[in-house]
């Protein structure tokens, strides 16, 4: 019983760590994408005016 409980705690901890790293990865991706989109928007708006 303790082996199963320890294993489930490890699995839950592993999923939590994976979720946090995934959130950090998505945050970095969103940050880079927003910078690229804003630079492209500024370049396009300069051409239009």
List the main descriptive attributes of the protein structure presented here:
single chain; mainly alpha; 1 helix; 96% helix
Description:
This is Chaperonin 60 subunit beta 4. Keywords: Membrane, Transmembrane, Transmembrane helix. The protein has one helix and no strands. The protein has one domain (about 1-49). With about 50 residues, it is an all-alpha fold. It has one helix at about 1-49.
Brief summary:
This protein is an all-alpha fold and 49 residues long.
Shape: rod-shaped
By helix and strand content, what is the structural category? mainly alpha
| Major β-sheet annotation | none
**Straight-line N-to-C gap:** 71 Å
Mean pLDDT: 88
- One letter per element, helices H and strands E, the order comes to H
The value of Rg in angstroms is 21 Å
Note the topology.
Blueprint lengths: L1 H47 L1
